[in-house]
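This section describes the prediction task in plain terms. A model, or a person checking by hand, is given the sequence of a single protein chain and must write out its three-dimensional structure as a string of tokens. No templates, partner chains or ligands are provided. The sample shown here is typical of the held-out split.
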Amino acid sequence: MLELVHLRQDRIEVDRATVGRRTDGLVVLLVPLVGELLALWIATPPPRGTRSPQTLAGYQRCIDKVIAPELSKVRLHEATTGRIETFLQAVRTVSGKRDARGILSQAFALAARLDAVDYNPAADTSRAPTSSNSARALTVADVHELRRRVLAWQDRDLGDGTKRFGPDRAHDLAEIVDVMIGSGTRIGECLALRWQDIDGLDGDGPVAVTISGTLVELAGTGVFRQDHPKTKSGHRTVTIPSFSADALRQRDRGIPSPEGLVFPSRLGTPRWPGNVRTSWRQVRGDDYTWVKPHSFRKTVGAMVERELGLSAPSAQLGHSGSAVTEKHYIQRASMAPDVSSVLEKLAPIQSVP
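The expected answer:
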């Protein structure tokens, strides 16, 4: 049975039957199986930084659904690079391959640091291909058409003067969309906005919105407001256009929210982002299936970059630098070098009169 040394016993609950002591006084954990190593890894704080609850939930979801069914009963010395490579190649989705490889690499790195294995077998496996989805932004005409569809959906307008019957629909989806378009926020950031985060709404001047948090969805826990955005650089104040300010002015429905949320649920609690995504899928139509709430954020980045350069959208979107903005949010054609002077040699010969 392989031994795994755990330097900080107080950070993880362990079965006493698996604990022994080496002569140097370090705690020894016996974890012969990959599943046991993964349980130890996810409960062990990383060497640097911290892991948020939603990050841990994502790791656990990948372990339970992707890794554990194939590898949990495999002994550590049997988890060779070739075996892990075969497993990863069988994972159906690119994101699943990427997440599983990252988790296994980190878990076996922990095992290697603690001398449970001689080397990290996941480190030399093939990397999953990066996403090929390029940034795709909406045109101005697209935005106008989608806004029209949102209003028609909210009004149950069938297009022939009649209205569809049925249960009440989210009647503020249009306001949510206009705030996202005018601010470049993620959907969780938009739904986490509080009235105290908005300045100037009662005046005639510019209206500024401070992005100070986001909503987090955790299985078994529900949805709650996290008091900081996704990243440190995501905490920012943006000036919104007049149509977004008007949407906020129309937004106050008088629903009491203990946290003062601008877009609460009907009960005044944080609103599930997944419910907004569901409503959006009902609105957009078959010809706009590629448009997601995050597409509005990409549209903001692309439009601002075209008008003001790359640094402006990086600040607007809350990125730590322009590299992320350029890679994921800016849609542009490749610019070839100017070789027109060379190609001019192929011009037709001008006849001399």
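For orientation: The first strand starts at residue 3 and ends at 5.
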